[in-house]
Write a structure and sequence with these properties.
The complex is a heterotrimer of chains A (about 325), B (about 260) and C (about 250). Chain A has about 325 residues and is an alpha/beta fold. Chain A is about 60% helix and about 15% strand. Chain A is built from eight helices and seven strands; from the N terminus they run αβββββββααααααα. The two termini of chain A are about 50 Å apart. Chain B has one domain. In chain B, about 85% of the residues lie in helices and about 0% in strands. Chain B contains nine helices and no strands. With about 250 residues, chain C is an alpha/beta fold. Chain C folds into two domains: about 170 residues, P-loop containing nucleotide triphosphate hydrolases (Rossmann fold), CATH 3.40.50.300; about 60 residues, no CATH class. Chain C contains ten helices and ten strands. In chain C, a hairpin with a 2-residue loop joins strand 9 and strand 10. In chain C, helix 3 packs across helix 4 and helix 4 packs across helix 5. Classes of the chains: A alpha/beta (about 325), B mainly alpha (about 260), C alpha/beta (about 250). Chains in contact: A-B, B-C. Chains A and B meet through helix 1 of A and helix 2, helix 4, helix 6, helix 7 and helix 8 of B. Bound molecules: adenosine-5'-triphosphate (ATP) and magnesium ion (MG). Magnesium ion (MG) binds next to helix 1 of chain C. Adenosine-5'-triphosphate (ATP) binds next to strand 2 and helix 1 of chain C.
């Protein structure tokens, strides 16, 4: 009787433990009994990547995230990837962390640096800890929509302080023009934010909008680009007077363009247009500023600010391109 | 008192006094039970049979509930997720809600009925028939003999039962998706794994532990303080089930706030 | 050593059951406690093993003040006291043998064989041979009562508290139990307190008899003193005449 009870209780408890342990491992996607390759990734920020997320290679799931920990000193994050089976990665292998689907789960994709050369990968410091036999890859995180908004905010701020300096170099009129560009930027930021807020219920509409908008914008952009080309030329010539005159004309043209588009297609189409024009303009301007060409560049003593602005604009451009190509990736539906 | 009908103020006063008294009794029982933990020689031999009656005997009812919960979850998830949302989310919904919420809470409520009632009835009967007094005169600490093994069995076995129930719920949800929803196994498993985090299981286990603790100790408490005859045992049993069910829901919310 | 209750007060809610009760039980004697139903006889017995604590007053058993003992000391004391419950209070989830063995299992260093033989011995003493494996619900009221007695004497306690040990038994069994009580006293030197309504049986087994009334000991004396007393309440009780009791109070 007693023995029977003990046997019964013991087997149920064992069964429970076995189910809990193996169930957990199985749900984590761990394969039993096979070999694993451990790879570490160092990067600045992991976004919403979490332990157990998938690791992919050319789109195929090949493992999972085993551990995430802040590096000693706090300057980077170390991610442990556990790949099923034996893997020998290419020499210029890097990891890109990005949302996997529109439902908020992230993944780590192993790619080669040559495939996405423009990403700002974390440079592994020489003194980074190297556990025996483990490869350390550089990592880069594709920001999501909320990050986009933050970056746009930062750009707007930087442009504001740039303008402050322009103010000292030029008269009232030019400043007004640039202020207008900043206003556009703010409007862009606000729209983005609204977009982020409404993303869950408007997802389908937005996705469609993006499709329409991108084709529409393509043609309009040509016009915009023509105008911007002229700013470019002006900055190169470094002739202050002609800048003053022509900037007014061009900016008027530009705002006309963006006004057209905003009116034509609401929300995202407008946003993208606004962004495109603004960014292209800023891009060129800051490129000039940084290279020190023309008198404007020399007027800016703090080149750091300019280069920072440029980096941000570059990042934004990348993001906008990505957003246009994969809108689903940025629009997150949080169910749970 | 001029009338036998209580004025609201008197009613509140009586209610408060009774509440404080109950709290005091509960605290007394808790410290007594903690002290009784030392008497391993008393509760040790009783633990296994309590594990059987609290845990093993509860497996069938728990699995029964889980089977149907799993099926219903899968069907309702697919019903909710029509349109743009991919079907693999059925797997995610079944897995996540089974592990985090429905497995622990539904099983906990069922066991509050089964285990809580039987604990209160058994202990209460022993109280009103002086069997608890008899234990004391035979130099057994009744808390060590009756309460400790039951509570330990609850704390230990609830998680086991709940893990099994959740697993069965997921399996039936899975097979319902295959047979009734035209989903593929790969799809279901993808959804199942998509949002799974190892911590979910820890969360469920912590929840289950606390449910086991609550159900058995509330049952013991009301049984221990049962008064009168069969009627008193009946009252104790009813209270034990009602209070432990309510506490399970409160605890559920509590853990959600604290741990998620 | 003995059992002494000094100025004990105990109330249940508004029901003041004991009102300054004083009682002294000599070592090795058998004292019968009589009194009307509801007088508090069971309550008095329960005070002696700490099942009920007095509101005020002292309960000293075996030289120890029950109120001041911690759990361990109280358990140690309880090993020396056997308690026969008025309604037996057998553990209904256990067989009779397991019931009787319960107390023995708490005595350190007892072997299983000893327990088995001791259980058989005690059941034989109350004339219940061969029912070891039956459950309380399968026994008659009188058998349950005797099984309760067997459980109380199993550990060979120094003190035995019998709460109506013979109520509801047939006359032959009553005599058997009475003789057992006397044997416990004479052979083992047990100090016994017997709550009983059976006055004839009380005369047979007791050294002294005490009557509990109004929360106090109204009369306490040897069997002869009690027989010869002309206290109207006692006479009412002994002769079963309610009209005497009414006049007395
Ligand atoms: N646990 C308790 N809670 C409340 N009241 C109690 C309790 N135990 C006893 N009483 C009360 O104390 C009084 C005395 O009870 P007790 O059982 O001692 O009577 P008794 O003398 O043994 O009577 P009887 O001869 O019928 O057994 C009764 O009025 C009873 O209601
Ligand atoms: Mg009584």
């Amino acid at each position: 009787m007693k023995r029977r009870e003990e046997l019964l209780a013991g087997s149920v408890v064992l069964l429970g433990i076995v189910v809990a342990v193996f169930g957990t491992l199985w749900l984590q996607g761990r394969r039993f009994g096979s070999t694993e390759t451990e790879v570490h990734v160092l990067m600045r920020d992991v976004g919403q990547l979490s332990v157990g997320n998938a690791v992919t290679f050319r789109g195929v799931p090949i493992g999972r995230v085993g551990d995430i920990a802040v590096e000693e000193g706090g300057t980077a994050v170390r991610i442990q990837l556990l790949l099923d089976g034996e893997w020998i990665l290419e020499d210029d292998a890097v990891a890109v962390i990005a949302p996997e689907s529109m439902f908020g789960d992230w993944q780590a994709e192993i790619v080669t640096r040559s495939r996405f050369p423009r990403y700002d990968y974390y440079e592994i410091p020489a003194e980074a800890r190297l556990p025996g036999g483990v490869r350390i890859l550089s990592g880069y995180m594709l920001p999501d929509l909320s990050r986009l908004t933050a970056v746009a905010d930062e750009v707007a701020q930087n442009v504001a302080s740039l303008t402050d300096r322009f103010d000292r170099a030029f008269g009232q009129e030019t400043t007004d023009q640039i202020t207008q560009a900043i206003d556009n930027m703010e409007e862009f930021t606000a729209t983005l934010r609204r977009l982020a807020d409404q993303q869950s219920d408007q997802f389908l509409g937005i996705a469609e909008d993006v499709q329409n908008a991108t084709s529409e914008i393509a043609s309009v952009l040509e016009t915009a680009r023509g105008s911007l080309e002229r700013i470019d030329a002006l900055l190169a010539s470094g002739d202050l007077d002609s800048i003053l005159v022509n900037t007014r004309v061009i900016t008027a043209e530009l705002s006309g363009v963006s006004g057209d588009i905003s009116a034509a297609s609401r929300s995202l189409s407008g946003t993208l247009t606004l962004a495109d024009s603004t960014f292209l303009a800023l891009n060129r301007i800051t490129a000039r500023l940084e290279s020190g060409d023309g008198s404007l560049g020399r007027l800016i003593t703090d080149t750091l600010l300019a280069s920072r602005a440029e980096r941000l604009v570059e990042e934004l451009n990348l993001l906008m391109a990505d957003l246009r190509a994969n809108p689903r990736k940025y629009v997150r539906l949080s169910i749970f | 008192m001029p009338t036998s009908v209580l004025t609201p103020v008197e009613y509140i006063g009586r209610w408060s006094i009774n509440s404080v008294r109950s709290l005091g009794k509960a605290g007394y029982l808790t410290t007594g039970a903690l002290r009784a933990l030392r008497n391993v020689e008393i509760w040790g031999p009783r633990l296994v049979s309590q594990m059987v009656s609290v845990g093993v005997a509860s497996v069938p009812i728990a699995l029964f509930i889980a089977v149907f919960t799993g099926i219903v979850l899968a069907l309702q998830a697919s019903y909710t997720l029509t349109g743009a949302v991919p079907m693999y989310l059925v797997g995610a919904m079944v897995g996540k809600s089974m592990i985090l919420e429905l497995g622990p809470v539904l099983t906990g409520l069922a066991l509050a009925g089964r285990v809580g009632a039987s604990t209160a009835a058994e202990v209460g009967t022993m109280r009103v028939t002086e069997q608890i007094d008899a234990l004391e005169t035979l130099a057994y600490d009744p808390l060590a003999y009756l309460v400790v093994p039951r509570v330990l069995a609850g704390v230990f076995m609830f998680p086991v039962v709940i893990v099994l129930a959740s697993a069965i719920g997921i399996l039936t949800g899975w097979s319902a998706s295959l047979t009734l929803l035209d989903m593929s196994s790969a799809e279901f498993v993808r959804g199942l794994r998509l949002f799974f985090q190892p911590w979910d299981v820890g969360f469920a286990v912590i929840k289950s532990l606390s449910f086991g603790l609550i159900v058995t100790s509330v049952g013991s408490f009301y049984g221990f303080h049962a008064k009168g005859g069969a009627g008193g045992v009946g009252v104790a049993t009813t209270r034990a089930v009602v209070v432990s069910s309510m506490l399970i829901l409160v605890l559920d919310a509590f853990w959600a706030v604290v741990l998620l | 050593m003995s059992i002494v209750l000094r100025d004990v007060y105990r109330a249940f809610g508004t029901n003041q059951v004991l009102r300054g009760l004083d009682l002294e039980v000599q070592d090795g004697e058998t004292l019968s406690v009589i009194g009307f139903s509801g007088a508090g006889k069971s309550v008095v017995l329960k005070h002696m093993v700490g099942l009920i604590r007095p509101d005020s007053g002292d309960v000293v058993v075996d030289g120890k003040n029950v109120n001041e003992l911690d759990v361990e000391e109280l358990n140690a004391l309880r090993r020396d006291v056997g308690y026969v419950f008025q309604f037996a209070a057998l553990f209904d989830s256990m067989s009779i043998a397991e019931n009787v063995a319960m107390g023995l299992r708490r005595v350190p260093g007892t072997y299983e064989e000893e327990i088995v033989s001791r259980v058989r011995e005690c059941l034989a003493l109350v004339e219940l041979e061969g029912i070891e494996d039956q459950y309380p619900s399968e026994l008659s009221g009188g058998m349950v009562k005797r099984a309760g007695l067997a459980r109380a004497i199993a550990t060979r306690p120094k003190y035995l508290l019998y709460d109506e040990p013979t109520t509801g038994l047939d006359p032959v069994t009553v005599t058997v139990i009475d003789r057992l009580i006397v044997r416990m006293k004479e052979e083992l030197g047990v100090t016994g307190i017997v709550v009983t309504h059976d006055i004839e049986s009380a005369y047979r087994i007791s050294d002294r008899i005490a009557m509990l009334h109004d929360g106090r000991i109204r009369i306490c004396g040897t069997v002869d003193e009690i027989r010869g007393s002309d206290d109207p309440l006692l006479r009412s009780f002994l002769e079963g005449r309610p009209e005497l009791a009414k006049r007395a109070s």
